[in-house]
Structure formats: C-alpha cells, structure tokens
C-alpha cells in the first residue's frame, strides 16, 4: 500500500508539499498540485482520513442517532439527511439506538472519539445534561432537549387536520392510536390537536397509547385488536404514524370491516408505502426532505458560530387517498 512518502518521492516534492495539497493549506502552484494528484492516482494512494481530520480539526463527518433505520419514517429521514450532508461535503455516521439508553450512550461516546463535526438526534433516552454538556453542534428531530435547536413538523396542526377530515367524512366514533404520552416528544402534539378538534366537532373518540417502546410493532397488533374488540362501532381511525395506520388496515380485514366503507383511516408521515398500499392511505405529510435540509443547515450554522434558531416547525399537508 502506497504511503505519503511514496507519493512525495515519485512526484519529486517534499512530504510537506503533499500534505499541503491534501489539506488545501498554503500556496501550491497548480502545476505541482496536478502532479501530486496524478501520482496519487497512479499509486492508488488513500490518505489517512483520521490523521487529516486531526490536522484540519474537523472530520467532515456528521453523526445521526435514530431509534431504528428499519422504521419507514426514520429510514426515509436518514436517507434524506445523508443526501443533504453529502451535498455539503460531509459523510454520515448512522447509529440505531433501539431506544436503549446504554446503547445510545456508547454511540454518543463513539462519535466523540471519532471527532464527528456535529450530531443529529432522532432518539432521546439519556438525561438532558448528557447532551447539553457535549459541547458539540447538536440538532434534534421532533424532540425538545434543553436549549438544543430542534426541527419538527407542525404536529398539533397535523392532528387537527386529521380530525377535521374524519369528521367531514361523517365519522361519529373515532379510534385514536397515539404515542406514549409520558414521553416528552413533540410528536405527542398530534394527539393534542386531534383531541381538541374532536371535542369541538362533537364526536366521540377513544385514545389508545403505545407502550414506552413506541416502535414495537407487536404492541401495535395488541392495541389495535383491543381497540376493535372493545369498540366494534368505531367508524374512523387516526394513527399518529403511517406504519400504525397500515396495521389498522390489516386488522380491519381480520374483523371483516371494509375500508373506507366501514372504517375510514388516516395516518401521519406519508412514507412511501402510504401511496402504493391498497387502498391508498390518507395521511398527514411531514416535509421529510425539508426537515433533513434544515437539520443539516442548523449544524453548519453552529460550526460557523452563527446565530441559530432554536425552534424550526415546518408546515404539514393533508394528503387524501382511498382510505378515507
């Protein structure tokens, strides 16, 4: 494997000159620069990125911690963040916390050791001080952690839009599947908006919360089965994620209910599956690409010591398909 010394010898320059070319430091003539690049290509030289990051004092790597990349929303969000980061010249270090605090702490420590330039947190299992004392550029997704800047969709309005649609379609008893309200998550504002609008609309509703592990799909099956067993007269359902809403569709078939004739269903997120599932799922669209773009921008602004907005709340959109 070629070394920086090999490159310098074949290019006829000093090791310092090769280092300056690699790190774009100091004056180097264009002729010399091109000669060094040519030799690196000929020798297939791969610079030591860790050493370069120590010299530059930044790594051009961003960290992202999410509960699980297998969850459709977080998978699409991670993909969007990686795309935006790459456009700005950064690579992405992706970690799944599985909502395990010990695992999340290990990942945070690993990112610090690897000198990532900033972290985006889509998971929050540690104490507030564990994040605020990091002295790193930080951004959270749908989580309010101390004074750390956050990006979220307009969750409360999204819940209200879902309730209005179901009421407008004639639903008189609505089942609502929410996250766990004990968790301090901005996404729980979807429930706040839904319940307020349902009360104002004069319709009956029943709310079923997930367990603390809000992404456990087995829990979805249990609470949906219980909801339809305890309230067989439900004629509308608002689930605070598309994934839960798709589980509702499955259980409607099990209980012999036709969608949307017997039960109208709306979700939240507008993941890819919402449009190709049959019947198509009505949903509240989160602007995932805009959320990703803004999260990366907030990190870059912190790196440049610019003033940063603490709260970024982006508008949502009602997408009506066949399920309502």
From TrEMBL:
Domain HTH cro/C1-type as annotated: residue spans: 3-50
GO molecular function per UniProt: DNA-binding transcription factor activity; transcription cis-regulatory region binding
Domain HTH lacI-type, residue spans: 2-56
Pfam families according to UniProt: LacI (PF00356), Peripla_BP_3 (PF13377)
Keyword terms, alphabetized: DNA-binding, Repressor, Transcription, Transcription regulation
InterPro entries from the UniProt entry: Cro/C1-type_HTH, HTH_LacI, LacI/GalR-like_sensor, Lambda_DNA-bd_dom_sf, Peripla_BP_I
Protein name, per record: Catabolite control protein A
Originating species: Paenibacillus graminis
Source lineage: Bacteria, Bacillati, Bacillota, Bacilli, Bacillales
């Amino acid at each position: 494997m070629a070394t920086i010394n090999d490159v310098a010898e074949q290019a006829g320059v000093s090791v310092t000159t090769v280092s300056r070319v690699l790190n774009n430091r100091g004056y180097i003539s264009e002729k010399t620069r091109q000669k060094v690049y040519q030799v690196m290509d000929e020798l297939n030289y791969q610079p030591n990125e860790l050493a370069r990051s120590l010299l530059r004092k930044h790594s051009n790597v961003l960290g992202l911690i999410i509960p699980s990349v297998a969850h459709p929303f977080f998978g699409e969000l991670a993909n969007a963040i990686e795309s935006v980061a790459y456009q700005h010249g950064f690579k992405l270090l992706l970690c799944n916390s599985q909502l395990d605090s010990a695992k999340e702490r290990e990942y945070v420590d690993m990112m610090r050791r690897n000198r990532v330039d900033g972290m985006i947190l889509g998971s929050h299992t540690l104490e507030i001080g564990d994040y605020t004392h990091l002295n790193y550029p930080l951004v959270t997704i749908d989580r309010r952690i101390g004074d750390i800047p956050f990006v979220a969709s307009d969750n409360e309005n999204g819940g209200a839009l879902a309730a209005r649609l179901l009421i407008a379609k004639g639903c008189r008893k609505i089942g609502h599947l929410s996250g766990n309200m004990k968790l301090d998550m901005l996404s729980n504002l979807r429930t706040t908006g839904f319940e307020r609008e349902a009360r104002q609309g004069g319709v009956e509703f029943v709310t079923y919360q997930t367990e603390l592990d809000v992404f456990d799909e087995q829990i979805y099956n249990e609470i949906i089965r219980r909801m339809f067993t305890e309230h067989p007269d439900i004629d509308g359902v608002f689930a605070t994620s598309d994934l839960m809403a798709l589980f509702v569709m499955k259980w409607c078939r099990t209980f012999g209910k036709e969608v949307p004739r017997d039960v109208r269903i709306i979700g939240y997120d507008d993941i890819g599956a919402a449009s190709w599932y049959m019947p198509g799922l009505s949903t509240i669209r989160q602007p995932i690409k805009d959320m990703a773009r803004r999260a990366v921008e907030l990190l870059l602004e912190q790196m440049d010591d610019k003033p940063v907005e603490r709260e970024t709340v982006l508008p949502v959109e009602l997408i009506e398909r066949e399920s309502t």
